[in-house]
């Protein structure tokens, strides 16, 4: 029997407008993530939150113990929902995420959060390589403009390129509304 879990990646205060590293479209993405969170809770499916903290006080955001490193109020965990603390892009690296999934016999992951080009990409590729069936809810993910070789790449293009890449070989990539209307368990 298929067992799914919602994995909320780095939906933290520093990524929002008053934070140290605001993302493009983060409010809309968090609203979609909040809808999914509510649906998973109502269905009784597993929910795991992932929170990033850098190990250095010199980090540009998510500094250890800072307010900005806290989960955003839109997606706060309930007491029975674990929060995985990570220090690397890949949420499986040096964390107990895989153990939590195995304890719950999870086979399918639904991934939302930030940033599309970093931690979403990292966890999705790792999860697929570990044998999980992965779905990314593209409109519940956010990123920001990037710069490469003197050229600014707009956030929408960064996001689109990463979602296209993940859809090519690592995950099903769908909109929140589509997922919520087509999933029997929810």
From TrEMBL:
UniProt domain Isochorismatase-like: residue ranges: 5-149
CDD domains attached to this UniProt entry: nicotinamidase_related
Entry's Gene Ontology molecular function annotations: hydrolase activity
Protein name per the record: Nicotinamidase-related amidase
PANTHER family associated with the record: ISOCHORISMATASE HYDROLASE (PTHR43540:SF1), PEROXYUREIDOACRYLATE/UREIDOACRYLATE AMIDOHYDROLASE-RELATED (PTHR43540)
Record Pfam families: Isochorismatase
Annotated SUPFAM superfamilies: Isochorismatase-like hydrolases
Chain segments annotated as transmembrane: none
Organism (species): Pseudomonas mucidolens
InterPro entries associated with the record: Isochorismatase-like_dom, Isochorismatase-like_hydrls, Isochorismatase-like_sf
Keywords: Hydrolase
Lineage summary: Bacteria, Pseudomonadati, Pseudomonadota, Gammaproteobacteria, Pseudomonadales
């Amino acid at each position: 029997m298929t067992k799914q879990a919602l994995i909320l990646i780095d939906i933290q205060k520093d990524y929002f407008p008053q934070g140290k590293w605001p993302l493009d479209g983060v409010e809309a993405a968090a609203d979609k993530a909040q809808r999914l969170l509510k649906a998973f809770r109502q269905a009784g499916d597993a929910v795991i939150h992932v929170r990033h903290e850098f190990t250095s006080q010199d980090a540009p955001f998510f500094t250890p113990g800072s307010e900005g490193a806290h989960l955003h109020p839109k997606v706060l965990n309930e007491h029975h929902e674990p929060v995985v603390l990570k220090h690397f892009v890949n949420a499986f690296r040096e964390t107990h995420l895989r153990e939590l999934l195995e304890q719950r016999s999870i086979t399918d992951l639904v991934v939302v959060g930030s940033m599309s080009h970093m931690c979403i990409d990292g966890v999705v590729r790792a999860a697929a390589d570990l044998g999980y069936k992965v779905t990314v809810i593209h409109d519940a993910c956010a990123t920001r403009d990037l710069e490469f070789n003197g050229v600014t790449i707009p956030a929408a293009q960064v996001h689109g390129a990463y979602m296209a890449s993940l859809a090519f070989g690592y995950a099903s990539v769908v909109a929140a509304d589509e997922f919520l209307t087509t999933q029997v368990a929810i």
